[in-house]
Structure formats: C-alpha cells, structure tokens
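Subject: complex prediction, re-run

Hi both,

The earlier run crashed halfway through, so I resubmitted it with identical inputs.
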Amino acid sequence: MSQLAEPLRPTPPRKLKLYFTIFLLALFLFASAYQTNSTFSELLTGLPNMTGLLVDMVPPNWAYINNITPAMLETIRMAVVGTTIGAVFAIPIALFSASNVFQSFWIWYPVRFVLNLVRTIPELLLAAIFVAIFGLGPLPGIFALGIFSVGIIAKLTYEAIESIDKGPLESMTAVGANKLQWIRCAVIPQISAHFITYVLYTFEVNIRAAAILGLVGAGGIGLYYDRTLGFLEYDKVSTIILFTLVVVLIIDYFSGKLREKLL
Amino acid sequence: MIRPQKPKKKIGLYILIYGSLLLLYIWAFSGVPMDGFKDTAGQISKAIFSGIFSPDWDYVYLPEGEDLLRGLLDTLAIAVLGTFISAILCIPFAFWASKNMNRARFTTGTGKFMLSFIRTFPELVMALLFIKAVGPGSFAGVLALGLHSIGMLGKLFSEEVEVIDPGPSEALAATGANKIQTLRLAVLPQVLPGFISYTLYRFEINLRSASILGIIGAGGIGTPLIFAMQSRDWERVGIILLGIIVMVVLVDMISGFLRKRVV
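This time it finished cleanly. Structure:
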C-alpha cells in the first residue's frame, strides 16, 4: 500500500545560487570589517563616550543662536545663489544632452558623458578645490554648489525632455520652425513645470550641502562645527544642529508645498 | 472672427510670487562678496588643471602603504559596511512607518518623523560626533554612514511596503498563519527585490560620501586628498580625483547592472 501511494512531487528549486550570493556577501562584509578595523568590542568601548557626549549636548545653549544667525543666513544665501547659477547653466546642457532635441549621437553623448563625470565628484570635494583656488569664504561654496546643481538639474531635466509628447515637436517641424522656435514653443512649455520642481528639489539638497561646506572653509554655518567641537562646547554643537534642522525642515515644507502646486 | 478669450491670470498672485522672488534674489546676490578673488587664483587653477592632466602615477601603488589603491579599498569597505548596517537597521523603521502595517495613524506619523529627522542630520556631522566617540578612523565613518542612511532607506523601504498586494497576506491569514509566518511568506517575497534595489542605490550614494568622510578624519581616500591639497601637491590631487571618479563610475555600472537584474 505504501509503495503505491507515493505521489510525484515537483523537486524544489535549487538553492545553490542563493547560498552562493549569501556567501559572497558575507565575504565582502568580513573583508570590509577587516579593512576598516570595525569590531563590536570597539563599538562597546566607544558607546560610553558617545552617551557622555550626548549628555553634554543637552540642554542646548539657546543664546548661541544669536551668534550663528548671520552664518545661517549666509548658508541660505549660498544655496539660493548656487542653485540659481546651476539652474541657468543646466538649461542649455539639458537641451544638448536630450537625444530627441539633438538627434546626432555626437552631440548628446559627449555632453552627457561630461555631465556624468561631473556628477561623480561630491560637492564637498568641489568646495575644497575651490577653496584652494579662491581662498576662504562663501564664494568657493557658491561655485561648488553651482556646479553640483548643474549635475542634478541637467540630468533630471534631460530625462524629462526625453519623455515629452512628440506631437508638438512634429507639428513645429511641419510648419517649418527653426531650432530655437522649435525649442521655445514645443519643448519648453512641456517641461517648464518639471524644471521648476527640479530646481526646488535641488535647492532643498543644496541647503543641506551648504550647511556642511564650512567644514572645508567654504562659508556658511559648517565653520562653526569645527570651532565649537574643537573647544568641546557640545551644548553649542547641539544648538547648531537643531537650528540647522529647523531651518531645513521649514524650507523643505514650503518647497514641498510649492512643488505639489506646480505639478 | 471670434477669437477664444485668453485665460484670465491671477495678477495679484503673480505679483506676489515674482515680487518676493525678486526680493529674495536682491538679498541673496547683494550679500555675495565679489572682491574675494585671490591674486593667485589663476595660477592655482592652472596648476590644478595641469596636475589633473599629468597625475602622479607612482602614487597608485606604494609598497610601504598609504597609497591610492589602499585608500580606495578603505573607502569601498566603509561604504559596503555602512550600507549593510543601515539596510538591516532600517527594516524595523520601515514597517513602523508604513501605513498598511499598523492601523494607528499616530504610529505611522512618529515613524515617518523619526526617519525624516535622521535624514536631515548631515552624515558629516554624525561622523564628527562618532570621531569623538570611537576615535578618528574608518570605523567612525562606517557608523556615521550606517546611521545616516537609515533615514533615506527607511523611507524608501516603507514606501515599498505600502504598495504590496494584500492578497497573499489575507490568504495566509485565512489558513491560520501567525504574524511571523505571514511576514516571511507573504510580505517578504514581495518587498525583497525593492529592498535590494534601494540598498544598491544607497550604496552608490554612500560610496560618494565615503570618499569625502576622510576630509574630517573619518577614514577613506579623503584624508590623503586633503593632505595633498594642503601641501599643494596638485599631481597627487589629480591622481586621487581620477581614482575616485574611476571607482565611482565602475561601481555605478556594476550596481546599475545588478539593479536591473533584481527588479
């Protein structure tokens, strides 16, 4: 009886690939932990320091806000100017790297390649380079943010341009418009709302970036982290952090509302 | 001939928006110091450019250590470990903040707030604090990235959890499966590809961050870079920048390929 009742079961899928992936991941992790000297024991010995530091941070030194308000305004100013410069330069670059505006491979591909290269460089590195060129102050920060913004805005915008409706483009070609008219009347009306959204989004990113650029001497509130941490004034550090958080959240809120309205 | 009427515009609103924008720009641009150019700016930028185009190839590998390859390996290790830590730690946050996993709006709200709070806290500031706790070095960088990435990954993960199909969970609940079995057999298979894809995406971002963490002493290639900049060794700066760009581009390509395979 028992010999008859053995049904045909499907064989379960092989798990070799899964095990191999897990093995590979574990290998990577162990190699990384070895390379960076990361151990749990070090974390455990570090934790008391960390809690001590957090205890030192409360209560925040509210009076310090008066000292850092000018630097905060400078941070916002850097973000505004940097984003604007980036937005202006991003328009032609986005048009040149969109493959439906300039069909020739030899135009959009090189532009896009340079754009991708620019996007690999982190903004703090750009700022450090510009500080070496222009000296300390907000100017190198503005340039760094400008270039960084071109990277983001141009990439998002050319992707938006490539997904626009073909109809207006074809009808503009049919009535014999030249390239500039073609762009002005067929491309720009379709992407302007997207473009403004991207600029606002980049502005939000830039506010966060501008708040740390001071660490390499590029102006803004970041400078004060160095100054206060060096003197172990943790109550002031927490003031800076909370102040930055509040400003960033307020700007995010308004920018988010505006973006929702636009789309 | 009857022409269609032009759509009425809300003139008051437009004046308000453009007026306040104009004021913002006047305030922002008037505060930019335009006399901040150093006389040596031209010279230095020329030196940087020539340094980037004639990099110090000997620095790629030095037998006694502290060379480009080891710096890049360190950076990579920081990014791998930081991303892995955050990918594990953010899972509870993701379920906490997703609407369909808990009924109470209050819980979801606090979860989302926690995540946006972590997101706004800059990783460099986190690294500064961890350096105070565990000492300078790669481990501080790992911890900073691991903690900071929770913000973004948790948000993306929770959005992934929110869009799952409730069918499988209901079917399992109907067969009498308990909560953990439902999670493992109905929720996890649906969200895993998304989780992996977002983790890889965050890994790309973390690699860029890890390359600048060294500027403040949290390990990786940033430390030799900032030393080379301070000693005006532009050929070395050139090779390090090249190394970072090549590494980032390669990792982006591999990670992009993997993400396409997963989703």
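Chain A has two domains: 16-57, 62-262.

- K.
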